[in-house]
Structure prediction request, 309 residues.
Amino acid sequence: MRIVVHGQQAFGKAVLEALLKRGENVVAVYVAPEKEGAKADPLKEAALAASLPVHQPASYRKPDVWAEFKALEPDLQVMAFVTLFVPEEFLNIPTKGTIQYHPSLLPKYRGPSAINWPIIQGDTETRLSIFWPDNGLDTGDVLLQKKTPISATDSLGSVYFDRLFPMGVEAMLEAVDLVKAGKAPRIKQDQAQATYEGRCGADNARIDWGKPWRQIDRLIRGCNPAPGAWTTLDGKTLKIFEAKPLPAKDPKGIAGKMGEVVEVGTDGFIVVCADGRIKVTRVQGADGPKSAAGEFAATAKLNPGTRLS
Prediction:
């Protein structure tokens, strides 16, 4: 079976290398064009190292791009991580179709930030889906799904890199096997259960210290490492990547104004929220690298009574 790998970044590279390692007939790789001055994409580098032809069209809407793809005589297109829109005219060229990875339980959490939102919204598990893409956004028939729990200390980074990434590579291989065997299902998504979430960006990641600790804790974890939950200190952005909630057990556990720093130590600083406090342990100031919060506090001369907003 002639396979074309289509994707980007480390996940695309991992899928390509896994397919090659077990002897699959990968005939070409499609990668998004790099921005001017940017380093070569890891998937592109892996493809060149394997002496595979690399294609980087700026758009997949053009007939000449479809003709170039068709000339490869592909049986299956494996889309590992794709950011450019790919129309059905291109998706349907391989004789056995196209399969794609998405890090959520489709039809829930369609959209570009499908790992952030389950953490932010307090879900206790998430899933990945391998599906047959169509002209919609994450709307195609599902081939297979895998699940993993979200713990009270998980972050975007731990859920993705520790679990959804390696699980996704294995799921892609399993899906390829099902396609080769002629046993790959096409399960219609239940539109009644569908949700679409927009990109989790800086506008979504600002901390409101007047919210309960659970919401703040989930926001910090769901935005670590990107886009980074943030607040302001003396008018400048302060990103918070790691923190520990301190739920109030009595009125003293809340005492102070919302966003007020009430304690500063070598291992971090404590901030008041609606129903408790948050102990901040890892941050990034507007003009510096990520650092331990205690170290940042000493350098910034952060004192009790300071308000974050």
